[in-house]
From TrEMBL:
Residues 17-205 form the ABC transmembrane type-1 domain. PROSITE patterns: ABC_TM1. It is found in: Cell inner membrane; Cell membrane. Gene3D superfamilies: MetI-like. It is a multi-pass membrane protein. It comes from the Bacteria. The chain crosses the membrane at residues 17-41, 53-75, 81-102, 142-167, 179-201. GO terms for molecular function: transmembrane transporter activity. This is Amino acid ABC transporter permease. One of its GO terms (cellular component) is ATP-binding cassette (ABC) transporter complex. GO terms for biological process: amino acid transport.
Length: 217
């Protein structure tokens, strides 16, 4: 008969939180870089580039993240590339994040009042200078709440990496449960840890959104 939940099991769960944060940070940073490129392409005056970015966004948003994980992890192995679970999960989440962040940021850029663009043109600024010096600094204020909100979702979505064997918080819970079979206790603790990770960010996002609404009034 298997033993009960011990202190070593708790330590194992806590340590796995670190890998959840590593994967979340990897996906968010790389996805942010990709998302910025997608945003620039989406608002480009070159119609072919804007349409290509739109196709990319709609394609990625229309595919479940789980399928992306399978494509990267198992698909690449078919061609002889043995990708570590962390790399595969990071790549899939990066692509997924870049589509969503690019779309979020594109909406914030396009929400800027037209007079801001006209004022930049009056100063003889190029389009890139207008974006960098005038539009983007103001759009960042609008983009911060939804960006933090997406980060909260991203942290929770890292749990899907468990299906390809990456040992983050959810996978660690599965491993422990397979040995002692106490699902209510173990996955209850896993849920508590996710809550502790996500709740402060959710409150921060809501606070920024409330401040933004008040200032707009």
């Amino acid at each position: 008969m298997s033993g009960g939940f011990t202190y070593s099991h708790l330590v194992y769960l806590v340590q796995s939180i670190g890998w959840t944060l590593v994967l979340s940070a990897l996906a968010f940073v790389l996805g942010g870089i990709g998302g910025f490129a997608v945003m620039l392409a989406r608002i480009s005056p070159r119609r072919w580039l804007a349409r290509a970015a739109l196709v990319f966004i709609e394609a990625i948003q229309g595919i479940p993240l789980l399928i992306l994980l399978f494509i990267v992890y198992f698909g690449l192995s078919v061609y002889g590339y043995q990708v570590p679970a962390l790399v595969a999960a990071g790549m899939a989440l990066m692509v997924y994040s870049s589509a969503y962040l690019g779309d979020i940021w594109r909406g914030c850029i396009e929400a800027m009042p037209k007079p801001q663009w006209e004022a930049a043109e009056c100063l003889s600024l190029s389009r890139w200078q207008s974006l960098r010096l005038v539009i983007i600094p103001q759009a960042m204020r609008l983009a911060l709440p939804p960006t933090v909100g997406f980060l909260v979702q991203l942290i929770k979505m890292t749990s899907l990496a468990s299906v390809i064997g990456f040992i983050e918080l959810t996978r660690a819970g599965q491993i422990i449960n397979n040995s002692i079979f106490q699902p209510f206790l173990i996955f209850g603790l896993v849920g508590v840890f996710y809550f502790l990770l996500c709740y402060p960010l959710s409150r921060w996002s809501q606070s920024m959104e409330n401040k933004l609404n008040v200032s707009n009034r």
